[in-house]
Amino acid sequence: MNIITLVSDLGIGGTQRTAQNFATNYLRKGHQSIIITPDKSGVRHSQLISSGVKVFTLDEFIENNNFNYDIVHVHREGCNGGYSDAIVATIKELMPDTHLIETNVFGWSDNTNIGKSFAHHFHVSYWSMWEWLNISKSENRCSVLPNPIDTTVFYSDKDKGESFRKDFGIPLDAFVIGRVGQAIEAKWTPDIVYIFKEIAKMNLDVWLLLVGSPPSILSEIRGLDNSLRNRIILIDRINDDSSLLECYNAMDIFVHSARIGESFGLVIIEAMMCEIPVFSIGNIWRNNAQYEILSSVDDRLYCKNRTELLNNIGSIISDKGEMQRIGSISRKFVLKNYNLLDVTDKALSTFKSIINGEQYINSDARRANILVKECVRSSIKIKAIILSKIMRSNILAKRAIRLIKVLRK
After folding, report:
1. Is residue 153 over pLDDT 60?
2. At 71, which helix (H) or strand (E)?
3. Domain 2-148+339-355 has what CATH class?
4. pTM of this prediction?
5. Residue 273, C-beta contacts closer than 8 angstroms, at least 6 positions apart
6. Whether the Cβ atoms of residue 142 and residue 125 lie closer than 8 Å to each other
7. For 283, which of 19, 67, 170, 261 could close a Cys bridge (C-beta 3.0–4.6 Å)?
8. Residues whose CB falls within 8 Å of the CB of residue 5, separated by 6 or more in sequence, listed in order
9. Which CATH superfamily is domain 158-337 in?
10. Helix H or strand E segment including 299
11. pLDDT, tens digit, for every residue of 226-260?
C-alpha cells in the first residue's frame, strides 16, 4: 500500500511521536510511506529522514506530482477548524479515490463535510471512543487503535537513573516522585505538589522531579518552605529520548493528575515501560483513559481523588518488593497491549479491509460501554438533574447526564 501520514507538526508531543512511529513502521513493513505536515521544523524531522521516510509540506507534495496513494492517515484532534481541514480538502480534490482515515486524538465529533469524509475513525482509547459514540450517535466504521509504543526506547535501567541523579544532585537513596509533561496548564493540577508535601511529612528524604511544569505549578512551588523547595528539580523540557529514559529511571514513582485527563496518556505509558509505578487521579468528566490502563495493572494506581492517591502511595512507599512487582507488571501490560508492531499490523489490516470494501462490524463499542460503566459506578452516586444545575458548563452538564445514563443501563 501507498500511505500518507498527515500531522500538524514534527515537535516533541505525543501525537507527533505517534505519527512518526506509524509512518516509520509502514515503511519497515514494505509499504510506501511519506509524511505531509505544514511545519517541518520540529525535532522529529531529522529522525524521519534518517529512517527513510520522506517529509513534505502540501505545496512540496503537489510539486512532486505523485498522487498514487491508497490511504491518508490523518492525526488530528477530531474537531473541525484544525490544521488538517484545508489539507484534507485539497487531497480529496487531488486524489478522489484515496481513502481518508483519522486517528481522533480527543474523541471529539466532527459533523462537517470534512469529518464525514473519513472512511474510518480510530480512537486511541476505549474512553475516548465512548465519548465519540455518544456525541456522533454513530458506530459506523470506528475502532480503538492505541498509540503504538516502541518498546526498545524506554526500559528499566537503574544505572542510567543513578547517573541522572548524580548530574542533578539528587541523593541515590532519596525517594523521588516524578512527573513529565508539556507546559500546558490543562495537563497539570496542583495535586503533584500536594502529594510531595504530604509524603515529606512521613520523614522521608523525598524529592520532586518535574519536567515541563506550567506557571501554576511553579507558583505552587514558590509557596513552599525552603526545606522543600531545595528538594525540587525543575526541567523546562527534554527533547531527546536518551535523556528522557534517564529521567524516568531516576524516579521511584510517577504521579499524574491533569485537568483534562488523558485520551491516551503517552507519558504514563513511557514511565510504565521503565517499570516505574504510575499513580493517577481519574477524571470522569473529561478524558479518562488512565482508568483502562492503570486499573488493569493494580487497583491502587487509579485513584478517585487526592486523598485516595496519598493513601495508595503510602501503602507501598516502603515496600520495595511490591513497587518492583507493580513496575514489572506495568511493563508487561504495555508490551502486550501497545507494542509498535502489533498496533501497526492492526492499522494495516484495517486499511486493507477498507480498500477491499469488506463489511465492518464494530466489536469495540460494547467493550467501551462496559468499561465506562464500570468506572462510573465506582466514582459517582449523584443524579444528573442535580448535577446539571450546579455545573457551570453546559458541556459538562451534558456529559454528566450521559454518565448517569450509563449507570441506568
Report:
1. yes
2. strand 71-76
3. alpha beta
4. 0.88
5. 149, 151, 153, 154, 155, 330, 331, 334
6. no
7. 261
8. 19, 22, 23, 26, 33, 34, 35, 36, 73, 75
9. Glycogen Phosphorylase B; (3.40.50.2000)
10. none
11. 999 999 999 999 988 999 999 999 999 999 999 99
